[in-house]
Amino acid sequence: MQAIEISQPGGPEVLRLVERPEPMPGPGELLIEVAASGINRPDVLQRAGAYPPPPGASDLPGLEVAGRIVGGDAAALSAAGFRLGDRVCALTHGGGYAQRCVAPFGQCLPVPAAYSDIEAASLPETLFTVWINVFERARLQPGETLLVQGGSSGIGVTAIQLAKAFGCRVIVTVGDDAKAQACREIGADEAINYRTQDFVAEVRRLTEGRGADVILDMVAGSYVAREIQCLADDGRLSIIAVQGGSKAEFDAGALLRRRLTITGSTLRPRTTEYKAAIGAALRARVWPLIEAGRFKPMIHKTFPAAQAAQAHELMESSQHVGKLVLTW
Q1: How many Å apart are CA 174 and CA 185, to the nearest integer?
Q2: In this structure, are strands 64-71 and 2-6 parallel, antiparallel, or unpaired?
Q3: Which residues contact 192 (CB under 8 A, 6 or more apart)?
């Protein structure tokens, strides 16, 4: 099969198209003939040598795919509700930048009937991440206000749509006015240009001094102290990346006085059983919204797999709104 491998840690140019043996599905796994592979920030970190795959995972990048089931034990597939030939999208441990990829049964979901493989490949990583960190760990409730740092990212556009679908108000931060308008069109109630506005002051103003109930943060670093200032009492800050640095200094007294919670997680190292439980929650709670047309995948651009380096260049430029996808 063809695959995109990381020849050595470095910039986008280290990605290269190669021939690799097809992977073999193990117990509890199926084999997917990949039509499209989603691109995510962790792929960029892995390419740079900053996010190694967990033990036993493929060294190839790629954490989400969509395509058809072409392998796996027939009896086990049937017991899991799948058949050979079914269209699925899957969260993978790695190996998604390839024409064939294995995935555990519990991390596979049916492709929504009206979706293309490209659209389906944009779903798993962001949906799993947002569900875990916004709805499970940060416990966002209907009627609450969510602040999304980086609203135009793949994670951001997913968080906007899910939070709105569950009856929440959404405020986002973005880097320019065009992205602000795009986020409003997706469903955000308010968009703050962090280059020209103080997001702390704006969040306080937009919430009449109350603050946001939940913040989804991909920056960390110096943002943490500022985010504490714009959280409501009993608010929850959920950190999913550290693009602004892994160290933060903040007022711990405010944390105590106002009963704030800071949480965070990373998805890739979690157990297969945990991810299967999240997959089941998505199937039960989110897939009906998708089937009803209340969630729309936002694809910024697709690239032939051989142009993975160009796709990573665009990802790192942050000049996109929504998802980037490779096609095979």
Answers
A1: 14
A2: unpaired
A3: 171, 172, 173, 174, 180, 199, 202, 203
pTM exceeds 0.70 for this model: yes
| Alpha-carbon dihedral sign for residues 95, 96, 101, 106 | positive
Q: Which amino acid, residue 201?
A: A
Q: What is the pLDDT of residue 60?
A: 98
Residue among 160, 164, 125 at smallest CA distance from 41 = 125
Q: Are the C-beta atoms of residues 287 and 109 closer than 8 Å to each other?
A: yes
Mean pLDDT of the region 9-18: 98
- Structure-block tokens of residue 215: 């913040």
Per-residue pLDDT tens digits for 16-55: 999 999 999 999 999 999 999 999 999 999 999 999 998 8
